[in-house]
From TrEMBL:
It comes from Faecalicoccus acidiformans. Keywords: Membrane, Repeat, Transmembrane, Transmembrane helix. The chain crosses the membrane at residues 16-34. PANTHER family: BETA-LACTAMASE (PTHR35333), BETA-LACTAMASE-TYPE TRANSPEPTIDASE FOLD CONTAINING PROTEIN (PTHR35333:SF3). Gene3D superfamilies: Cholin Binding, DD-peptidase/beta-lactamase superfamily. One of its GO terms (biological process) is beta-lactam antibiotic catabolic process. It comes from the Bacteria. This is Beta-lactamase class A catalytic domain-containing protein. The keyword Glycoprotein does not apply. The keyword Membrane applies. Residues 188-230, 236-380 form the Beta-lactamase class A catalytic domain. The lineage of its organism: Bacteria, Bacillati, Bacillota, Erysipelotrichia, Erysipelotrichales. GO terms for molecular function: beta-lactamase activity.
Length: 406
């Protein structure tokens, strides 16, 4: 009978034999796999992917396989996934190892990989989203810009999807550069009627000249709606007052609002303005040259914001009836003065506005119906006549046009 020592020695030899058999089996399996072209696990115990060419060589570096590009580590031969920085640029390889192109979301951030596979950096790029296309900007680290970004000295605004928007910082900077060239009051109110982006540089009360007539117009329509005035009695005066800026028509309408007493009429206008929240606007006297002039205890007054707010209420049909608002906008579109806001617009761009002027004072406020979107613009100046308004109108239009072309 064999001794315990003999039995233990046999068992040790048997275990070694089994281990050798198993190792040999795995080596043979690995050799069989490696000798077959295509993708394989590195070994039975290593699930990293490798690629074997038809000639039996193992893929290394950038490799094209069935018209897709992959990257295999030059040392290990492992297929690469994720971001890869090289001297040529940064690439991204998906979970299946294929090189990525176009828009990619990585850890919550959006990137863009160009036709050659490199990451877009410090550049604008057109993004296609279904039938829509828009321009986005990709920062130095490759992420899509969001919020406000300064690029080569110019400020840009991007929404949460990376789509370029109006930068109030940039447009205000350009407006203030123009303002700095003018003395006295030079005020601007701008609002994009689609996004709501608003810029207001100053809101000091000023003698309004004929721009005050839009407040009288709105009050007349309110009294027509309430049955206190007959529309047929007012139409000609409204047309002459808004289209041709006729002062006599203004004086007559204010008197009609007061049942023949113009001072009562001014109270009706002021109360209506206050009811709309236009608390910085008031009329006290008539306008000359023109018939029916009446004096007042104070000067007429308004602000750019009040002019803008009334125009926006009419535009959005927030006051009176829809028909009344449409009629008021139609009158404003026919305003004969084209020396202010309108002078800097292309001929095919419509503008509903009302201007006013006296000596060096020039005020203009209106809605611009541009192909890229409607916007509201009001300018007040007491020292430059039309030139300030013209420069601001051109600045705003060109900025928005350029933005729409991105």
């Amino acid at each position: 009978m064999p001794s315990r020592q003999q039995i233990n020695a046999f068992l040790r030899q048997y275990r070694i034999f089994l281990i050798l058999i198993v190792c040999l089996f795995f080596m043979l399996c690995s050799l069989l796999l490696i000798n077959r072209s295509g993708f394989h696990n590195a070994s039975l115990f290593d699930h990293h992917k490798i690629y074997i060419h038809e000639d039996g060589s193992q893929a290394s570096g950038m490799t094209e396989i069935d018209r897709d590009w992959y990257y295999f580590d030059p040392d290990s031969g492992y297929m690469y996934t994720g971001l890869l920085e090289t001297e040529e640029g940064t690439y991204y390889f998906l979970e299946d190892g294929k090189q990525a192109y176009g828009v990619q979301t990585i850890e919550g951030e959006t990137y863009f990989f160009q036709k050659d596979g490199t990451m877009a950096q410090n550049t604008f790029y057109e993004i296609k989203d279904g039938d829509q296309a828009y321009t986005a900007y990709f920062l130095e680290n490759g992420t899509m810009a969001k919020g406000e970004v300064e690029i080569e000295g110019t400020f840009y605004q991007f929404d949460e999807n990376g789509q370029i928007q109006i930068s109030s910082t940039e447009l205000e900077k350009q407006i203030e550069a123009i303002q700095s060239n003018y003395s006295g009051l030079a005020e601007v109110y701008f609002k994009d009627l689609n996004s709501g982006t608003t810029i207001q540089t100053g809101n000091v009360s000023m003698y309004p000249c004929s721009i005050i007539k839009i407040f009288v117009m709105a009050t007349v329509y309110s009294q027509i709606q309430e049955g206190n005035l007959e529309k047929s009695d007012c139409e000609t005066y409204l047309e002459n007052m808004i289209i041709d800026s006729d002062n006599t028509s203004y004086n007559v309408l204010v008197s009609m609002l007061g049942n023949g007493d113009p001072h009562v009429g001014t109270t009706v206008v002021n109360q209506y303005c206050a009811s709309l929240g236009l608390e910085d606007t008031a009329i006290y006297h008539g306008l000359v040259p023109g018939e029916g002039y009446f004096e007042g205890a104070h000067e007429n007054t308004t602000t750019p914001a009040d002019v803008a707010n009334l125009l926006e209420m009419i535009y959005n049909e927030e006051i009176l009836t829809s028909d009344a608002c449409e009629e008021m906008m139609d009158l404003l579109k026919q305003c004969a003065d084209d020396t202010g806001i309108v002078s800097s617009l292309p001929e095919d761009v419509e503008c509903a506005h009302k201007s006013g002027w006296a000596l060096a004072n020039y005020l203009d406020g209106g809605i611009v119906y541009a192909s890229f979107g409607d916007y509201l613009l009001v300018t007040f100046s007491d020292s430059s006549y039309q030139s300030f308004c013209q420069e601001i109108s051109d600045c705003v239009y060109q900025y928005l046009l350029e933005l729409s072309n991105f």
